[in-house]
Amino acid sequence: MGDVDVGGSSLPAVRVGLNPQALFNQGVSLDDVRSAISNANVRKPQGSVEDDSHRWQIQTNDELKTAAEYQPLIIHYNNGAAVRLSDVASVTDSVQDVRNAGMTNAKPAILLMIRKLPEANIIETVNSIRARLPELQETIPAAIDLQIAQDRSPTIRASLEEVEQSLIISVALVILVVFLFLRSGRATLIPAVAVPVSLIGTFAAHVPVRF
């Protein structure tokens, strides 16, 4: 596989919808809100631990992750009273991009768009992916179902089958025409052997280079 794009989903995020009237009443500026949120999500070194030969830096992850953690965040003081984020804004758990969604069979879904390498064989790539699906299904929760939404290989497989049928018909017609004109089984045997052998040799030469 050359690349995998993920669609129909977005990473979790907390959305803050500011109320302009509440900001004005509390004397809070947009910069106050921005600074308070930024300062609440700063990773700072907490010290270090060391011995005679090693030193380990200690950092704590104090980032806020849910709306419930953001709501009581103090962003300003108005006449000595603390103004919290929930006082001037609606704070909800959401996703980074609310316009990004995926559906399959009228159900929410996450789409994985797989692209092959330029030099890879698309049939072999598809067969490999299909063979790995049962194994991947066992590693995820049972409520999640892996399905193939779109597969472009059937048209390619059909084209290959048409080429194979055309070759067989062509060889048969060559042998038939030679027999009808020469009326000799021995003379007909030569193209009957030479044509298939030449075709097999031609395609065999393509196998090492995966053409």
What features would you describe in this structure?
This protein has 211 residues and is of the alpha+beta class. It has a two-stranded antiparallel ribbon. It is 45% helix and 23% strand. The mean pLDDT is 83. It is elongated, with a radius of gyration of 34 Å. It has helices at residues 20-26, 30-39, 67-70, 85-88, 122-138, 153-182, 185-206; strands at residues 3-7, 12-18, 45-50, 55-59, 74-78, 81-84, 89-95, 103-104, 107-108, 111-115. Among the domains are: 11-95, 2-Layer Sandwich (Multidrug efflux transporter AcrB TolC docking domain, DN and DC subdomains), CATH 3.30.2090.10; 151-210. Helix 6 runs antiparallel to helix 7 (185-206).
Question: TL;DR?
Answer:
By secondary structure, this protein is α+β, with helices and mostly antiparallel strands.
Oligomer description: single chain
Order of adjacent strands in the largest pleated sheet: 1-10
CATH architecture of the domain at 11-95: 2-Layer Sandwich
Give unreliable regions as ranges.
none
Helix fraction, binned, reads 40-55%
Q: Count the helices. How many?
A: 7
Query: Secondary-structure element order, as H and E?
Result: EEHHEEHEEHEEEEHHH
State the CATH topology of the domain at 11-95.
Multidrug efflux transporter AcrB TolC docking domain, DN and DC subdomains
Which geometry do the CA atoms define?
elongated
Mean pLDDT: 83
**What's the CATH H-level homologous superfamily of the domain at 11-95?**
Multidrug efflux transporter AcrB TolC docking domain, DN and DC subdomains
Largest sheet: 2 strands, antiparallel
What is the C-level CATH assignment of the domain at 11-95? Alpha Beta
Distance between the termini: 17 Å
Number of strands: 10
- SS content category: alpha+beta
* Strand coverage percent: 15-25%
* Whole-angstrom Rg: 34 Å
